[in-house]
Design goal:
Rossmann fold; Alpha-Beta Plaits; eight-stranded mixed sheet; four-stranded antiparallel sheet; binds nicotinamide-adenine-dinucleotide; binds prephenic acid; NAD; PDH_C; aromatic amino acid biosynthesis; Preph/Arog_dehydrog; prephenate dehydrogenase (NADP+) activity
Length: about 375
């Protein structure tokens, strides 16, 4: 693909983003929000590049890395993890700008960091692994959002040899994510991500498989799969290539976790077989207690907002009905977003308030108008 005209002159620092999908596009947007920067986008799919250019996420587009990474000040690799490993090899073979920071956004960090130690140790380049712990089941650059990582944890896995000043430099590049940076050992990262993200994903996909099989005999089943099933399996709609790679690169963590999961299932099976009512209730009570105590996303280190979620039916004018109720009571909101998570059932509006008291007032008056309103997502 030929270079297109640049919005941002070459005099600006340059960021090269490899893989213009959901995460690459979102990171690029967040960098743009805080920096005067020239962004070069690289993707194997020309349609993604065209879209990224049309959405003004990038200034120039390439289908290979040669032309765009060599003079970059920061290189962000945002492809599925196996491709990221290949990209690292390709980048290391090229002459790079002295002092360049290279980072990735992959969901696993152990294999990536091991490779980076071999490839970049002798170079005037710093590799710092990264993983923003937020995303979506939707892939592709069209879903990119500059605020995707707001308030989310953003894991960084600098190698032991990496200077703290370089980590701070990367954080400055990524400051527009408004994320909460946390430095982790790569293996610990993989253990934690395995438990909060990777194993749940396997379980979600397996529940969908089970439903699909049963639906062959009971076609109505798909229509009955409502709230609970959709909530727990939303993530099964995510990009299969991305998840294939995650399982491949985190196998040593996931295999024992899956054994443990199967043994937990056997324990529950025994409780049911034995009619152990007390044991079953304890199983759910303990899970509820722990789940209810998990910190909610909105409590960030950066100034937080108070969120309220409103179920809304899918009809024209519904948003103005909700905002109208708030306006009638003189309550201001700082943000409103239509959540996609349950789009097939009902819509969910997320309203953000500056003060907790405003949220409570909003909740009271919306409930009085028969809206279904709740505080945690
Ligand atoms: N989706 C999430 O929720 C999420 C969250 C955090 C991190 N991640 C990680 O981010 C990375 C990207 O995920 P995504 O959700 O943005 O996926 P995506 O499918 O939306 O985007 C991936 C992009 O990489 C491009 N690509 C593939 N091979 C390439 C190559 N050889 N050269 C250049 N471009 C190539 C694809 O064309 C696509 O545009 C993955 O490593 C994933 O583990 C994903
Ligand atoms: O919200 C979702 O759809 C996600 O699955 C995001 C999610 C996660 O499991 O939390 C998925 C993989 C990424 O590595 C990080 C975030």
């Amino acid at each position: 693909m030929a270079n297109d005209t640049s919005e941002h002159p070459r005099g600006y620092p340059k960021a090269a983003v490899i893989g213009l999908g959901l995460i690459g596009g979102s990171v690029a947007l967040s960098i743009r929000a805080r920096h005067q920067v020239h962004i070069s986008g690289i993707d194997v799919h020309e349609a993604s590049l065209r879209m990224a250019k049309a959405l003004e996420i990038i200034d120039e587009a390439h289908t290979s890395i040669e032309e765009s990474v060599q003079d970059a000040d920061i290189i962000i690799i945002a492809t599925p993890v196996s491709k990221t490993m290949e990209m690292m090899d390709e980048i290391a073979r090229l002459p790079l700008k002295a002092g360049v920071i290279i980072t990735d956004v992959g969901s696993t960090k152990g294999t990536v960091m091991k490779k980076s130690e071999c490839l970049f140790r002798e170079k005037e380049a710093t590799f710092i692994g990264g993983h923003p712990m937020a995303g979506s089941h939707k892939s592709g650059v069209q879903g990119s959002r500059g605020d995707l990582f707001e308030n989310a944890f953003y894991c960084l896995t600098p190698g032991e040899e990496v200077d703290g000043a370089e980590v701070e430099r990367l954080k400055r590049w990524l400051t527009g994510t408004n994320a909460r940076f946390i430095e982790l050992d790569p293996n610990l990262h993989d253990l934690l991500a395995g438990s909060v993200s990777h194993l749940p994903h396997i379980v979600a996909a397996s529940l969908v498989h089970q439903l699909a099989e049963l639906q062959q005999h009971h076609p109505v089943l798909g229509d009955l799969a409502a709230g609970g099933f959709k909530d727990i399996t939303r993530i099964a709609s995510a990009n299969p290539i991305m998840w294939r790679d995650i399982l491949v690169h985190n196998r040593h963590v996931l295999l024992p976790m899956m054994e443990r999961w199967q043994s937990d299932m056997q324990t529950i099976q025994s409780l049911i077989e034995e009619g152990d009512d007390t044991g079953l209730q304890r199983f759910f009570s303990e899970a509820k207690q722990y789940r209810d105590g998990l910190p909610s996303k909105k409590k960030g280190a950066i100034p937080s907002f108070y969120d309220l979620f409103v179920d809304v039916s899918d009809h024209p004018g519904v948003i103005s009905e909700v905002t109208g109720v708030l306006a009638d009571h003189g309550i201001s909101i700082t943000n409103i977003r239509i959540m996609e998570a349950r789009e097939d059932i009902t819509g969910v509006l997320r309203l953000s308030f500056r003060k907790e008291a405003d949220r409570q007032k909003g909740m009271d008056c919306l409930e009085a108008e028969q809206f279904s309103v709740y505080i945690s997502e």
